[in-house]
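In the current project phase, our protein records have gained a structure token line. A sample record follows, to show the layout:
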Amino acid sequence: MGAIYRREMGAFFSSGLAYVFLAVFYVLSGYFFYNNVILSGFTDTSPLFTNMFIIVLFLIPILTMRLLSEEKKNRTDQGLLTAPIGLWEIVMGKYLAALTLFIIAESIIFVYALILSYLGDVVWATLLGNYFAMLLVGAAFIALGLFISSLTENQMTAAVITMVVLFALFLFNNLTDSVNNEKLQELIEKLSFYTRYVEFTSGVFNLTSVLFYISTAFLFNFFTVRVLEKRRWG
């Protein structure tokens, strides 16, 4: 797994994708930090993280689009699949590389916290809760993007489909307004990624939501392994 991880991290930076991803993430998060936090006169970073959820919907598909689709397009997947390495190691090597880059991007929040410390008292419990929530969302969405990347050899197709699916999950929460059945509303809220995320930004730590995101990440990584397994023996 270590070799796959190092290979993917190197590919991110040698292709320039890492620099583009980080630059766009920093510019957009910096814009929301200035407008939603600095101009407000408060040191509460919750409004920033609420907007960062939207940033993630756009950027994670770009981060995950090439992970497996490029292997399939270049016909290097067969060499990878026949190598003396487990499928879980292949998937987790690629997954952790993308997650590492996401963590590097998200950690800009600590630079923002340093700036805020000169303007007032930083509410670290809220900031760390929001940071942890964004990490969980990123972990789940990256796993989903990796799975979609395993289904096609076209990077743009993988990116577009992932973006559409992520936006559908984001808008899923709005279905509660159009549903009259109370139990169905509760089910929609339980399956809503955004509702669970907003809980964290509001300062509510819910262990069920933590397990929800972790389970989602595991489930889609499992699906990816099954796709590769079918391709190996197909």
About this structure: Residues 2-233 form one domain. Residues 207-233 form the longest helix (27 residues). The CA atoms of residues 142 and 212 lie 15 Å apart. The radius of gyration is 19 Å.
